[in-house]
Design brief:
Layout (H helix, E strand, L loop, with lengths): L12 H11 L6 E7 L5 H11 L4 E6 L10 H13 L1 H10 L8 H4 L7 H17 L3 E6 L6 H13 L5 E8 L9 H8 L5 E6 L4 H11 L4 H11 L3 H12 L6 H10 L3 H13 L2 E3 H8 L3 H13 L3 E4 L3 E4 L2 H10 L2 H17 L6 H11 L2 H17 L3 H12 L5 H17 L3 H14 L4 H16 L7 H10 L7 H17 L3 H18 L2 H17 L3 H13 L7 H16 L3 H17 L6 H16 L3 H11 L5 H18 L4 H8 L8 H16 L3 H19 L6 H17 L4 H19 L11 H20 L6 H18 L2 H17 L4 H16 L2 H13 L8 H11 L4 H8 L3 H15 L4 H10 L6
Parallel strand pairs: 1-4, 1-5, 2-3, 3-4
Antiparallel strand pairs: 6-8, 7-8
Length: about 950
């Protein structure tokens, strides 16, 4: 049923037709994003669509530009209207989907805190029910004013696609959306969704504008043409200009809009001014209280405002301005004192009767009225309401507003903790750290309060890579607790202490602290703390060399979880997946990381550190498993609604695939992610590895060495270590590229490359020194790769390396890569193995290289195929001779003995002998003379 008055639509039949087509019929489901400049006719098109919808329910909601609105505001409006029309239906929907409660104003006051997952799932499920029960048209207007939670909910609905029988239309003012507008990232995501149709309303043609002008006012043709030209295809502006022209004026836009209001009588103008202060949408009950005029006068004033198209009915609740531009013009025209008095009247009315508006409305008016005390309490209440509704970002905004309104230490302490928790939930742990640090710097409160702040700081810092000495922080927090401290606070501090000790590698001490905390949590029934501690103990078991015990404990936590997912549960899932990854159980790791992502989305925690990290790791593991297309799909889905830092993490992870396929510019990805290096060290690792491979293939060795040095310096600082495990992988890659370059370099250059390679290998050897626990399988794989690449570099630089030794080294590298289940790294090691076998004439080379080709084709690894083709081109008697061996061959042609060769090349006789043996093997010659003859016949030597 229609929820707004009929509208005259001129000149938009083509666009309306495309809109109908995109939405499908009553039994179909479709979604359309409708954009256009202010006044271009979006609302008129939507109104016509609503008028035509006679067999389906219509749910209409608006986003409002007022500061500090509630989360999910348009959906609250929809459910309120539906509740007014069909209360029994709403009760049935709420009974089946309790997560809907916060969106139903009649019920929301008694609602407990709701997980975003439950609310989001409830909305989607309810739309599905309405779609099956006769269908529904769902309209969200003015998304350029949408709150963050509404934007995220729309992203989910667009991504999933409208349920069968539901048509979803979202409008936005495109001329308002600049590069830094909050809607801009969402629009970038929405525009790539195949299930979402985009429709942009452009300028109306002049003949349509003339019709609008003539219908608005009786004007002579020359004046009609003048107004038409000035309107520039804008329907709203054309109508306003026409009315003004009929009165003999042609003012600027602000005065033009006010001209319509000034045609009202004094009482009606006064009511409209009150309405403009109340907001774009005006509840009748609040307007009645604030306007403070007799009911007959109010009715007459409202009738005039509606008849003159200043206001329009807003369902059965009140009124709304015909256009936001009109509301803005009226509000801006008020005198400062007049506006202040009206805001004060709104505050008084809302304080006397809370049913007239939400806490966020009271906070907004109190702020404008300068009533700091009321604004403080209302903002805090609005934050609590937003948190209960599953809107942590909106809650954070309200709490921060409240923090700016008080210096009462007790109140500031409480608000800081609430704001930090909201920031963590919204994926803004860095903001939580800043808030807590600021409070700790100013606080002179009781020891317990400081301990509480320190524990919260340690928790938030662990979610970021902020430079916080959590060992010192948690030690101080523990020292502040007396014997009578609340158990919950003690367990919280002990848990954070165990975290800090774990991350510092102090396993035994961490176990003792975690066990103490677990005992208290079990004794006092602290369920959430038990889950967090179980994760900690499981991680410690893994660190202590008992990964199987770690997995058993974590599985117990996960399988025993019955509540809505929260950060503690996501952490348990994340650690379980990480343990699988470290054990090189790649299929289990991929499934685990994907579950973290899915559960986080369900809980509305997609922006949390565990979800963002798990997505990057899922992409990484999919790459390692050779499921590259799946990695790309994960990345594409993950970018939907992602923050800039999360997108940088995704792009860095998927850079592995792009580098291995020789696709987009990984250096650009490296540069784009650089601002986020301090916050997420995974970004430089993954983007850096990809860039090193690409740069190395291009032979830009100076850049390769500089990048490797930059990465090592950055990672050592981020992790506060002397040597990071990833240095072995970086060294293996770089030494491999040095070896490739050395095979064709001059003697002097070969010496420098060898020295550089030896230095890198020596540094990498310090990562796991003799006597240390040693690496897991992945680390052993890269150590074997480094050892083989180092031998290859030595041989390419002219050092005496037996082919058999090199074959053994590459066979070890292949074996470990295969054991880990990494087809790409196995293939890369096989390529080098095949290269060595080929150089010695070993018949196994063909089988080894054929295996590489099969893998490269299946993965789409174009650079690997190029390397194979280069080997095939070079095959023959001359294939495989190093630069040093060419020098030795030239001296053999002159009849030099091994000793003479050694003296001329400044190498030992034994080394010269090794080179001669290699040359004979590669050329398939039985003697030195035969080798020279073969070389001359194949063009290796001049005849």
């Amino acid at each position: 049923m229609p929820t707004r008055p009929s509208a005259v639509l001129v000149g938009r039949d083509p666009e309306l037709g495309r809109l109908r087509e995109a939405l499908g019929g009553p039994g179909d489901g479709g979604a359309v994003l409708l954009g256009g400049d202010a006044g271009i006719g979006k609302s008129a098109v939507v109104a016509r669509l609503v008028d035509e919808t006679t067999t389906r329910r219509v749910l209409l909601g608006h986003c409002v530009g007022d500061v500090g609105t509630l989360p999910y505001l348009p959906f609250v409006e929809m459910l309120a209207a539906l509740d007014g029309r069909e209360r029994d239906l709403v009760d049935e929907l709420v009974e089946a989907h309790p997560g809907l409660v916060p969106l139903v104003p009649r019920l929301s006051a008694s609602a407990r805190e709701t997980a975003r997952a439950d609310l989001v799932e409830a909305v989607h499920a309810v739309l599905g029910v309405l779609g099956r029960d006769g269908g529904a048209l769902v309209v969200v207007e003015d998304a350029h004013w949408a709150d963050e939670s509404t934007r995220e909910l729309l992203t989910l609905l667009f991504t999933r696609g409208a349920p069968e029988g539901v048509s979803l239309v979202v409008t936005y003012r495109s001329d308002d959306v600049h590069r830094r507008h909050p809607l801009a990232p969402a629009l970038a995501v929405w525009s790539r969704l195949p299930r979402l149709a985009r429709l942009e309303l452009g300028r109306l043609p002049d003949d349509a504008v003339r019709r609008i002008v003539r219908s608005a006012a009786a004007l002579p043709d020359p004046l009609v043409d003048e107004v038409t030209a000035r309107a520039e295809g804008n329907a709203f502006l054309a109508e306003e200009l026409a009315v003004a022209a009929a009165d003999g004026s042609a003012p600027e836009l602000g005065r033009l809009l006010l001209g319509r209001v000034e045609r009202l009588d004094d009482d009606a103008q006064a009511v409209v001014r009150v309405a403009a202060v109340v907001g774009r949408r005006v509840p009748h009950a609040l307007l009645e209280r604030v306007a403070d005029v007799p009911p007959p006068t109010l009715r007459s004033a409202l009738r005039q405002a509606v008849e003159h198209h200043v206001l329009e009915p807003w369902g059965e609740l009140g009124y709304e301005f015909r256009h936001a531009l009109l509301a803005e013009a009226v509000s801006e025209d008020l005198l400062p004192t007049e506006r202040l008095q009206l805001h004060r009247a709104c505050v008084e009315a809302l304080r006397e009767d809370e049913r007239l508006g939400a806490a966020a409305d009271l906070a907004r008016h109190a702020l404008a009225a300068g009533d700091r005390a009321t604004a403080l309490h209302a903002s805090a209440r609005a934050g609590d309401t937003a948190r209960r509704m599953g809107g942590p970002a909106e809650a954070l905004g309200h709490y921060e507003t409240a923090l700016g309104l008080t210096d009462d230490p007790e109140v500031v302490h409480d608000l800081t903790l609430r704001a930090a928790a909201a920031a963590n939930g919204a994926g803004r742990a860095g903001r939580a750290v800043a808030l807590l640090r600021a409070r700790l710097a100013d606080a002179e409160g009781a020891p317990r309060e400081r301990a509480e702040l320190l524990a919260a700081l340690a928790y938030a810092a662990r979610l970021t890579e902020e430079r916080v000495d959590r060992l010192t922080v948690t030690a101080e927090a523990l020292s502040l607790l007396d014997t009578d401290a609340p158990v919950a606070l003690r367990v919280s501090v002990l848990t954070r202490r165990a975290d800090a000790l774990t991350d510092a590698g102090l396993v035994e001490e961490a176990l003792a602290v975690a066990d103490e905390a677990m005992g208290l949590a079990v004794e006092h029934g602290l369920h959430a703390d038990r889950v967090d501690l179980s994760s900690n103990l499981a991680w410690l078991a893994q660190a202590a060399g008992d990964p199987d015990g770690s997995v058993r404990r974590l599985r117990g936590v996960v399988e025993g979880w019955r509540d809505t997912p929260d950060l503690a549960f996501l952490r348990a899932l994340h650690i379980l997946a990480v343990v699988h990854h470290r054990q090189s159980d790649l299929p289990a790791a991929l499934a685990g990381f994907e579950r973290v992502v899915d559960e986080a989305r369900r809980a509305g925690l997609a922006a949390s550190v565990y979800s963002v990290d798990a997505l990057a790791l899922a992409i990484t593991v999919a790459f390692e498993l050779g499921r590259w297309d799946h990695a790309l799909e994960l990345a594409e889905r993950g970018r939907v609604g992602a923050s800039p830092s999360a997108r940088a993490s995704i792009d860095a992870a998927v850079g592995y695939v792009h580098a291995a396929r020789g696709e987009p510019d990984v250096e650009a990805t490296l540069a784009a992610g650089r601002p986020f290096w301090p916050d997420d060290s995974r970004i430089p690792v993954q983007a850096g590895v990809a860039a090193l491979d690409v740069l190395g293939r291009c032979g830009v060795l100076d850049r390769v060495l500089a990048l490797r040095a930059e990465l090592v310096t950055s990672l050592r600082a981020a992790w506060s270590v002397e040597h990071a495990p990833v240095e072995v992988r970086l060294a293996a890659l770089v030494v491999g590229h040095l070896a490739s370059a050395a095979s064709t370099a001059s003697a002097a250059t070969r010496g420098r490359l060898l020295d550089e390679g030896e230095r890198l290998a020596a540094e990498a050897a310090l990562v796991w020194p003799e006597g240390s626990p040693g690496p897991e399988l992945e680390g052993r794989m890269w150590l074997a790769r480094l050892a083989a690449e180092r031998l290859r570099l030595r041989r390419a630089a002219g050092e005496p390396v037996e082919a058999e030794t090199l074959v053994t080294a590459w066979e070890d590298a292949v074996t470990l890569a295969e054991e880990r289940g990494d087809p790409y790294e196995s293939a890369r090691a096989r390529l080098r193995l095949g290269e060595v076998l080929l150089s010695t004439g070993d018949r196994r080379a063909d089988g080894v290289l054929e295996n590489v080709r099969v893998v490269a084709v299946s993965l789409g690894a174009a650079p690997l195929l190029t390397a194979l083709d280069a080997l095939a081109t070079d095959r023959g008697p001359a294939q495989g001779l190093t630069a040093r061996e060419h020098e030795v061959l030239a001296l053999l042609a002159l009849g030099r003995s091994n000793g003479e060769v050694g003296r001329e090349l400044f190498i030992t006789t034994k080394t010269a002998s090794v080179h001669v043996s290699n040359i004979l093997a590669k050329l398939g010659a039985a003697s030195r003379g035969e080798a020279v003859a073969v070389a001359r016949s194949t063009g290796l030597l001049d005849p």
